[in-house]
Amino acid sequence: MERPSRRGIAALACVSSILVACAGDGDESAPLPTEAAAVPAPDAGDLFTESGSEESAAVTGQDAAPVVESIPPVPETGVPGIASADAFCRAWSQYAGSVQALSLAWAVQPAAAAATLEVAASDAVTGAVVAMAAELPADIESNRDALTVDVPGPFLLRAERARQALADAGATDVDIDLLGDAWIEAIAAAGLDAEDVTVVVADDVQQKLSTAAGTFLDDTPSILEDPTLDTTEFDITPSLDYIFESCPDRGTLAGNDVVESGS
């Protein structure tokens, strides 16, 4: 079930406040009539009927319809938001989508294949976090460090190690950029649930990638076994709330749709 947006909740709160204020208006010191018959019954149509105003829902007894903004559904294929026109949302999807796809690769693919994908993705992951920081909305500026430094930090260290392995294997900056682009294209086409994602590049770049992946695998644990990736101490709730309201993935790339076993 979709949750109402904060704007809708705020609108309902304002309506409630107005009704309470109206109920509390008036001179409390004025004497009350001793007989109800002495007070002429007001015509319901005369209450709150200034020119151009609507009849009060409290008088008519009708329930006021809540104001809830419609949010487009999350796409079921591909990586939601990875091609978004919103620069922040696009960068978020590239980063969070990469983390999710690589985590799945380490879970279901041979270690050498998973390491190859992570090395290929290194430039894309780093670039996505840089773009998130550059395009961070003012609404979540106070959450900047947690979202763009603290939480992605350990993953960026792995990406830096992967990039160094590529350089040591003879890959140029152009080669590394091409690998990052190929990674984004691969997950956008295959989707996050694909268990056989592959990166397609020219043979000479592929050879450098294979060499770098071997080095990376020797020096780096699986994503699933790397203790440095536990960043639960950092609170990015404000950012996830903004993403839910404003980005195509609505926070699903952060695992908001995952139900842990036994819960």
Q: Mind explaining what this structure looks like?
A:
This protein has 263 residues and is mostly helical. It has 2 domains: 1-24 and 34-70, no CATH class; 87-254, no CATH class. The protein contains 9 helices and no strands. It is globular, with a radius of gyration of 28 Å. The two termini are 19 Å apart.
What is shown here, in short?
This protein has 263 residues and is mainly alpha-helical. It has helices spanning 6-24, 57-60, 87-108, 111-134, 144-150, 153-168, 173-190, 203-219, 237-246. It has 2 domains: 1-24 and 34-70, no CATH class; 87-254, no CATH class.
List keywords for this structure.
disordered C terminus, about 260 residues, mainly alpha, single chain, disordered N terminus, 2 domains, about 0% strand
Sheet/helix structural class? mainly alpha
Number of domains: 2
Helix content: 40-55%
The quaternary state of the protein chains shown equals single chain
Backbone shape: globular
Number of helical regions = 9
Q: Indicate the low-confidence ranges by residue numbers.
A: 1-60, 66-70, 257-263
Separation of the first and last Cα atoms? 19 Å
Strand segment tally: 0
Q: Hey, roughly how much beta strand do the residues contain?
A: under 5%
Task: Please state the average pLDDT score.
Answer: 78
Q: Cα-atom Rg, whole angstroms?
A: 28 Å
Biggest sheet details: none
The topology string of helices and strands comes to: HHHHHHHHH
